[in-house]
């Protein structure tokens, strides 16, 4: 039984439509079971950390495909799905990406392009211009945002809420990787126009986030950071 199966007792919809619609009847869980699942999912996500120390162990392409399939379920402005995930396993191409990213980051960190307040904010993460993990990981996946999408008739379709849509898709991608025991980092080399050139993307796409993907290194460490408490993440106007 899926959410789209019509049960025998389901009433016919009284609505009329100009486009095709389907019945949607997801299972209604009893509340104890719903809370149990919510807690389990929350605890699972709490165990995720961004990783900068990766293992070179291989990751099958099938796992990248599963994560992108999950990302591809994201809601999007006008259902335009304005994302493209480009997966790079080729070591030579990964090395080119590393070189280009480090060139920009050297200007940021050593050349003084990063404003002081920004540097201070990054202090606890101990980031620097060394992006050697881009050579270590089996995959680099770059999410591109499609500002517009070329249509089969040659015209360009403008897309709406592109940042929101691609951001949500990337969140689902991260969660799917984590579910499979893989680690990643939301790396945003700055500026990252070099990815357009190296990965030969059309000008209608903008590099959005670069994800190194792999298993954490056996000696991986992460900064000792705390998540803000629920009381600061949630405010109620309870009824
Ligand atoms: N792009 C730089 C700097 C950087 C910026 C933020 I905001 C971070 O959360 C981490 C790093 C870099 O990749 O090092």
Automatic annotation (TrEMBL):
Region of interest (Disordered), ranges: 1-24
Phylogenetic classification of the source organism: Bacteria, Bacillati, Actinomycetota, Actinomycetes, Catenulisporales
Protein name per the record: Nitroreductase
GO molecular function list: oxidoreductase activity
Keyword vocabulary terms for this entry: Flavoprotein, FMN, Oxidoreductase
InterPro entries according to UniProt: Nitroreductase (IPR029479), Nitroreductase-like (IPR000415), Nitroreductase/BluB (IPR050627)
Domain spans labelled Nitroreductase: 46-215
Name of a matching Pfam family: Nitroreductase
Transmembrane intervals: none
Protein's organism: Catenulispora acidiphila (strain DSM 44928 / JCM 14897 / NBRC 102108 / NRRL B-24433 / ID139908)
SUPFAM superfamilies assigned to the protein according to its UniProt record, in alphabetical order: FMN-dependent nitroreductase-like
Top-level taxon in the UniProt lineage: Bacteria
């Amino acid at each position: 039984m899926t959410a789209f199966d019509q049960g025998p007792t389901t009433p016919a919809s009284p609505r009329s439509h100009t486009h095709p619609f389907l019945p949607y009847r997801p299972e209604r869980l009893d509340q104890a079971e719903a809370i149990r699942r919510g807690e389990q999912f929350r605890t699972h996500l709490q165990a995720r950390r961004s990783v900068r120390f990766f293992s070179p162990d291989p990751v099958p392409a099938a796992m990248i495909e599963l994560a992108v399939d999950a990302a591809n379920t994201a809601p999007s402005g006008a259902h335009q799905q304005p994302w493209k995930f480009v997966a790079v396993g080729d070591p030579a191409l990964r090395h080119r990406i590393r070189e280009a990213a480090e060139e920009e980051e050297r200007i940021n960190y050593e050349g003084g392009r990063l404003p002081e307040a920004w540097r201070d904010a990054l202090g606890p993460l101990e980031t620097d211009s060394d992006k050697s993990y881009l050579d270590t990981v089996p995959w680099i996946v770059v999410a591109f945002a499609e500002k517009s999408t070329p249509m089969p008739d040659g015209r360009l379709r403008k897309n709406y809420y592109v940042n929101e849509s691609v951001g949500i898709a990337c969140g689902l991608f991260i969660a799917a990787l984590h579910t499979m025991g893989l680690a990643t980092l939301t790396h945003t080399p700055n500026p990252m126009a070099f990815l357009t050139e190296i990965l030969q993307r059309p000008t209608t796409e903008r590099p959005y986030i670069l994800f190194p993907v792999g298993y954490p290194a056996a000696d991986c460490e992460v900064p000792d950071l705390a998540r803000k408490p629920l009381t600061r993440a949630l405010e109620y106007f309870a009824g």
